[in-house]
Structure to design on (710 residues):
């Protein structure tokens, strides 16, 4: 830059002058404005409203409200329904996350190895993603029916007895988790397939020459490490999706039997839209958001550092 | 000891034949280069030797033993890829050491977590680290052992790829265009390093390149390939001095050889631009032929008179490329249409005036190719021909003389 400056004009002088820089700054801000506005309107402002509301006793339809401090939060800590729904949500995530990630990876690796039948399997596994869960819930309800459902007929046939999957308090969350996995595997498979096709063929060939002859060696030496960034992304999306479990509970169990399938989002929905405890629901939502935030932060700071080369 | 023998190797992909009956014998310790334009099948051939691709027919032997049934890692060959194919998630040391860990650790000693249960593993890994360091020292990449491939320059990656192939002490080094991802200067440098490495290791090298300079400078022998077969196999100087095929003549040598269209006259005498050259061949009269003259075998005459056995060609200089030590001159020749005749002359050569000049060449420097492109040797001249004081002007342009 200074090469352009005339002798004696001073080394600090900018080649384009302050006006150019000002225009550039304005242009940059102008270009960022629409996205910023959208972000403000759709995320940040509602978040602030939510945050403010969680310190009040506002109820939907009320004309006025009072500040109650952290009363909503301390109430939540003592609320057995909330604690149970929190525990159920974690149990659900704990089953769905490893299941949907591992099975999604397994299916992707298997499907990737197919040549002619690949697109067929891709469609088959992806179908649950495209289907409406509300509609499919009816099908699941039939499949899992204690007496009429084919699953129980099968279990009965192999002598495993009959199980009331959706009305047994011990089974209901794992059963919902199975349905959640069924829906997520296809999506994760597509993500893993994209990751797999990004791995250069050369590496597999080099590995073959270097002695990674078997499938396990190849997977551990090349595939798994190079899928690191994909896996990290899949884990983040899967855990957040699983944490937001709502529709299957709302349609199939309504939190029952005896509150054993109550989950976080469903409790928030009941408080906010059934009992109109809007402020309390806002406080619960804050808790929900804090968990999502913790997930994202852990994953992007801990995992991200280890998977990028 | 590793002598590689290819016996009528053929390869077809569906209906397309990529290699047709390649017979090749690479001597122990030899540096053999497969050279050819892209798509000639040279990479496929080296991949077949490496075992990455099965041949459709034919067999490969190393030291007389067939290796057709062996997996790539059992063949005791190492392949250096054009892309280097380094494992991006491993350090340099991990990359170089991988072939050894695969050889020396059992399956469960390589599994994650479980591997730490093996008491033997740590000892083996220490041994491997020693060997990796020794190889890295040879290649002068010791300070880089802890880095990831993404933190290395192209030349350094190249060395790591070499190190990974050296650490196993393979019988045969296979290299698939290893220098083509490097910039020009580094390529020249790595060329001499590879040649030195070959000298030091005394191992058989099979090297694939599309760059004739690499082929000429490094190899003991060169196999020029085209359309799935070997056109000519010989030392670099053989390929340069006696190209067996017009394609070889065109490929080897830079700038490319000048080709003059010719016909065969009565008694196999070659005619260029309607004039008889006192060159007799066994070709049938009336057939087409081509005369090739290397750019370094033809030069503007300057003031010197035409010597015996020399032919002159009237031409107008179109363009001059100054390479410092030499000039590349481009000439338009009347009667040759758009074709340009290239001359390569030393920088101290008298370039003369810009107008019309005579380009002169010796008859002995002519390469004759028949209509199919095969080399045709000039027959021994009859005595009277040979004694003839040939001073021939090919086109009307040949003014003074």
């Amino acid at each position: 830059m200074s090469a352009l400056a005339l002798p004696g004009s001073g080394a600090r002088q900018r080649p384009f002058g302050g006006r150019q820089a000002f225009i550039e700054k304005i242009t940059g801000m102008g270009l960022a404005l629409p996205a910023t506005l959208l972000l403000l309107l759709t995320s940040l402002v509602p978040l602030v409203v939510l945050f403010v509301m969680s310190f009040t006793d506002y109820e939907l339809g009320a004309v006025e409200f009072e500040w109650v401090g952290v009363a909503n939060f301390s109430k939540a800590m003592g609320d057995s329904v909330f604690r149970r729904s929190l525990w159920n949500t974690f149990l659900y995530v704990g089953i769905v996350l490893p299941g949907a990630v591992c099975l999604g990876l397994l299916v992707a690796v298997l499907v990737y190895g197919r040549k002619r039948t690949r697109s067929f399997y891709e469609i088959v596994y992806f179908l649950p993603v495209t289907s409406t869960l509300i509609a499919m819930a009816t099908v699941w309800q039939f499949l899992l029916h204690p007496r009429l459902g084919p699953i129980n007929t099968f279990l009965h046939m192999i002598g495993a007895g009959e199980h009331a999957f959706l009305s047994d308090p011990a089974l209901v969350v794992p059963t919902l988790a199975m349905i959640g996995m069924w829906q997520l595997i296809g999506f994760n498979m597509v993500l893993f397939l994209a990751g797999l096709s990004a791995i250069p063929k050369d590496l597999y060939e080099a590995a073959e020459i270097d002695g990674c002859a078997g499938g396990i060696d190849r997977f551990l030496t090349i595939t798994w490490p190079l899928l690191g960034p994909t896996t990290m992304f899949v884990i983040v999306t899967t855990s957040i999706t699983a944490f937001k479990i709502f529709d299957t509970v709302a349609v199939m169990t309504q939190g029952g039997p005896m509150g054993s399938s109550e989950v976080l989002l469903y409790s928030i929905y009941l408080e906010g839209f059934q009992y109109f405890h809007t402020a309390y629901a806002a406080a619960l939502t804050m808790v929900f958001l804090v968990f999502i935030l913790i997930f994202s932060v852990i994953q992007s700071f801990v995992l991200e550092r280890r998977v990028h080369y | 000891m590793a002598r590689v023998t290819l016996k009528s190797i053929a390869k077809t992909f569906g209906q397309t034949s990529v290699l047709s009956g390649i017979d090749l014998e690479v001597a122990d310790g030899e540096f053999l280069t497969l050279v050819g334009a892209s798509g000639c099948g040279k990479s496929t051939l080296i991949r077949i030797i490496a075992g990455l691709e099965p041949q459709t027919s034919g067999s490969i032997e190393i030291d007389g033993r067939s290796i057709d049934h062996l997996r790539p890692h059992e063949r005791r060959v190492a392949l250096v890829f054009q892309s280097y194919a380094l494992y991006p998630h491993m350090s340099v040391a991990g990359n170089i050491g991988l072939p050894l860990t695969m050889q020396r650790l059992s399956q469960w000693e390589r599994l994650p977590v479980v591997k730490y249960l093996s008491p033997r593993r740590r000892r083996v890994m220490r041994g491997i680290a020693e060997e990796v360091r020794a190889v890295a020292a040879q290649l002068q990449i010791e300070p880089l052992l802890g880095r990831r491939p993404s933190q290395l320059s192209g030349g350094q990656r190249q060395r790591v790829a070499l190190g990974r192939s050296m650490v196993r002490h393979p019988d045969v080094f296979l290299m698939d265009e290893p220098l083509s991802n490097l910039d020009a200067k580094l390529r020249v440098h790595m060329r001499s390093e590879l040649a030195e490495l070959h000298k030091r290791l005394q191992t058989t090298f099979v090297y694939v390149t599309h760059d004739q300079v690499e082929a000429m400078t490094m190899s003991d022998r060169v196999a020029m390939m085209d359309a799935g077969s070997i056109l000519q196999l010989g030392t670099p100087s053989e390929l340069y001095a006696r190209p067996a095929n017009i394609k070889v003549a065109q490929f080897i040598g830079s700038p490319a050889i000048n080709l003059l269209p010719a016909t065969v006259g009565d008694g196999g005498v070659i005619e260029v631009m309607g004039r008889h050259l006192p060159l007799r061949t066994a070709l049938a009269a009336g057939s087409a032929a081509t005369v090739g003259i290397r750019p370094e075998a033809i030069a503007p005459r300057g003031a010197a008179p035409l010597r015996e056995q020399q032919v002159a060609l009237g031409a107008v200089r179109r363009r001059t490329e100054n390479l410092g030590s030499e000039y590349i001159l481009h000439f338009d020749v009347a009667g040759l249409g758009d074709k340009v005749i290239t001359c390569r002359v030393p920088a101290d050569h008298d370039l003369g005036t810009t107008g019309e000049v005579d380009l002169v060449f010796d008859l002995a420097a002519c390469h004759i190719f028949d209509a199919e492109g095969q080399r045709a040797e000039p027959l021994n001249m009859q005595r009277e021909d040979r004694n003839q004081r040939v001073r021939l002007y090919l086109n009307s342009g040949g003014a003074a003389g």
About this structure: The first helix of chain B runs from residue 42 to 50.
